[in-house]
């Protein structure tokens, strides 16, 4: 026989908050345990379970926000390719320890309420533009929220079924580069892609690879900075955007990298010493 509980009793689950017993049932489990109906206080989720599980708190609410404190799995399995896409999206926007948080959640990018539940995300995913191509080769595609929101400031962009597409990773990288370039140009920066000017007149070269910005150095020469970007783009990107500038080899353009020259001086000093 199962433990006796009463309507109105409130219990604490092991991982999903408090729940209340709302109905005693006449039915029994396969091992004759008493069954009751409960409701989770935070989400309103209702379910039927044994009194033994109620007393021990071993009940899981599929809609409890246990992913970054804001999202839930819902009634869906995480054992699918779509789950990693959803998981990464949530963590970029809501996990401050995530490598890419500063470029997403830290800038104001958010996820629509519906997509905070993986069950809903999984239901909407097949309707996204590019889904048919993603099915054929998932590793080449990424979830993009920028293509359809280019006229919206990045801090107001949102991941949702109406704002996202599945895009080739190479095209996604190109889009990010062009957006960065447009933003830098608007700030009276360099006309070259991947180059901008800081407040002391140094030319900063950087590239975005898989959503992560990589600083390529501070240069005293704009053409050298543009060459540094070109070299990195050829190394990291397929069909990269290139700056139309006179060619400099890495050996040449590194001479204008103030940080590299400082490191070289330190190394030389140690050798002499």
Which descriptors apply to this entry?
alpha+beta; 4-stranded antiparallel β-sheet; 21% strand; 273 residues
Note the gap between the termini. Answer: 83 Å
Strand content: 15-25%
Helix content: 25-40%
Strand order of the largest sheet: 1-2-3-4
Largest sheet: 4 strands, antiparallel
Question: In summary, what is this structure?
Answer:
The chain has 273 residues and is α+β, with helices and mostly antiparallel strands. Helix content is 31%, strand content 21%.
Structure description:
- This protein has helices at residues 51-56, 81-94, 118-124, 131-136, 169-186, 222-236, 250-253, 258-272, and strands at 10-12, 18-28, 34-40, 46-50, 110-111, 141-144, 158-159, 165-168, 195-197, 203-209, 212-219.
- With 273 residues, the protein is α+β, with helices and mostly antiparallel strands.
- The radius of gyration is 27 Å and the shape is elongated.
- It starts with 9 loop residues before the first strand and ends with a helix.
């Amino acid at each position: 026989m199962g433990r006796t509980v009463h309507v109105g009793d409130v219990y604490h689950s092991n991982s999903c908050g408090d729940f209340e017993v709302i109905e005693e049932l006449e039915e029994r489990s396969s091992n004759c345990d008493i069954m009751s109906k409960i409701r989770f206080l935070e989400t309103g989720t209702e379910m039927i379970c044994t009194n033994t599980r109620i007393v021990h708190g071993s009940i899981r609410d599929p809609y409890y926000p246990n992913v970054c404190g804001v999202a839930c799995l819902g009634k869906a399995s995480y054992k699918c390719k779509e789950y990693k896409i959803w998981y990464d999206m949530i963590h970029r926007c809501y996990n401050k320890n995530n490598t890419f948080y500063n470029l997403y959640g830290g800038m104001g990018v958010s996820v629509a309420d519906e997509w905070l539940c993986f069950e809903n995300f999984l239901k909407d995913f097949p309707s996204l533009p590019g889904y048919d191509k993603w099915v054929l080769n998932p590793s080449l595609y990424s979830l993009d929220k920028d293509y359809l929101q280019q006229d919206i400031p990045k801090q107001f962009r949102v991941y949702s079924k109406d704002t996202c597409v599945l895009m080739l990773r190479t095209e996604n990288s190109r889009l990010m580069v062009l957006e960065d370039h447009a933003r830098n140009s608007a700030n009276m920066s360099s006309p070259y892609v991947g180059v901008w000017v800081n407040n002391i007149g140094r030319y900063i070269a950087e590239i975005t690879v898989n959503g992560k910005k990589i600083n390529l150095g501070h240069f005293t020469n704009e053409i050298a900075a543009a060459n540094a970007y070109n070299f990195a783009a050829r190394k990291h990107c397929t069909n990269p955007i290139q700056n139309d500038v006179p060619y400099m080899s890495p050996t040449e353009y590194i001479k204008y990298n103030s940080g590299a020259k400082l490191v070289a001086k330190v190394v030389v000093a140690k050798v002499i010493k």
